[in-house]
């Protein structure tokens, strides 16, 4: 952990401003986090909701589970941590979270309406051959 001298107020202000701005994830990290965000494994909240000038967000990345844990290649140092993400990337990440929710909900709605039986047991023209045969 980084230590800051308490007597140097200017250095403290500079450090606070760096945190307030947040930081960008590297492309590889952003893509991995975005995959987990699409799956609903990312939680985000504004760093300082009372200050309209602060655009950065706190972002927690949860561990993948089930099939996604086996199939996705996610760096160990990315999951189970909280990041202070800059406003631009945070906005895009929020869009990905929203997109994932919409697309997963559509998949579940389609699954709920799907008729597996009809697709497996009904063959057009099969009844006519049996009747005429």
What is the structure about, briefly put?
The protein has six helices and three strands; from the N terminus they run ααββαβααα. It has 133 residues and is mostly helical. The model has no long low-confidence stretch (mean pLDDT 88).
Walk me through the topology.
Layout: H1 9-21, H2 27-38, E1 42-46, E2 57-61, H3 66-71, E3 81-85, H4 87-113, H5 116-121, H6 126-132
Antiparallel strand pairs: 1-2, 2-3
What this model shows, in words?
The chain is mainly alpha-helical. The protein has helices at 9-21, 27-38, 66-71, 87-113, 116-121, 126-132, and strands at residues 42-46, 57-61, 81-85. A three-stranded antiparallel β-sheet has the order 1-2-3. α2 runs parallel beside α4 (87-113). It is elongated, with a radius of gyration of 24 Å. The mean pLDDT is 88.
Our Rg estimate from Cα atoms comes to: 24 Å
What structural class do helix, strand and pairing data support?
Answer: mainly alpha
- In terms of DSSP E residues, the strand content is 5-15%
Low-confidence stretches: none
Identify the overall geometry.
elongated
Helix and strand run? HHEEHEHHH
The averaged pLDDT comes out at: 88
The strands making up the biggest β-sheet line up spatially as 1-2-3
Instruction: Give helix % range.
Output: 40-55%
List keywords for this structure.
133 residues; mainly alpha; 6 helices; elongated
């Amino acid at each position: 952990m980084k230590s800051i001298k308490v007597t140097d107020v200017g250095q403290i202000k500079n450090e606070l401003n760096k945190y307030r701005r947040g930081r960008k994830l590297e492309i590889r990290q952003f893509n991995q986090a975005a995959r987990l965000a699409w799956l609903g494994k990312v939680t985000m909240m504004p760093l300082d909701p009372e200050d309209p000038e602060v655009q950065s967000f706190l972002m927690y990345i949860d561990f993948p589970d089930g099939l996604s844990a086996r199939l996705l290649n996610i760096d160990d140092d990315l999951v189970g941590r909280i990041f202070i993400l800059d406003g631009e990337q945070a906005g895009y990440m929020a869009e990905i979270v929203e997109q994932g929710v919409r697309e997963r909900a559509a998949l579940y709605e389609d699954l709920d309406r799907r008729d597996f039986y009809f697709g497996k047991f009904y063959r057009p023209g099969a009844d006519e051959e049996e009747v005429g045969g």
